[in-house]
Amino acid sequence: MAFTLQVQPAEEDDPTHDPAVAWPEQREGITAGRLELIAPVDDQDYWAAQRFDPTRVTAGTELSDDPVLAFRAQAYAESYRRRRRNR
Fold it and tell me: What is the three-state SS of the chain?
């Protein structure tokens, strides 16, 4: 199973606060990477116990003002809490 990450950088006047507003279709995207899943890792239990948080970003990267990001961080935290409780 493989995934390709495509990104479309925002331009100066693009709205970033409303994910329902589409940016121009003619704007080119960038292939940022590819992930191929070929087998479980030896430390799968460790990684299965980790929590994904889309608001944790590396230095030099900023979140947009999209309110969905804040909601997703809370939703993923709740999902993690429930998974841990059911172990």
Answer: CEEEEEECCCCCCCCCCCCCCCCCCCCCCEEEEEEECCCCCCCHHHHHCCCCCCCCCCCCCCCCCCHHHHHHHHHHHHHHHHHHHCC
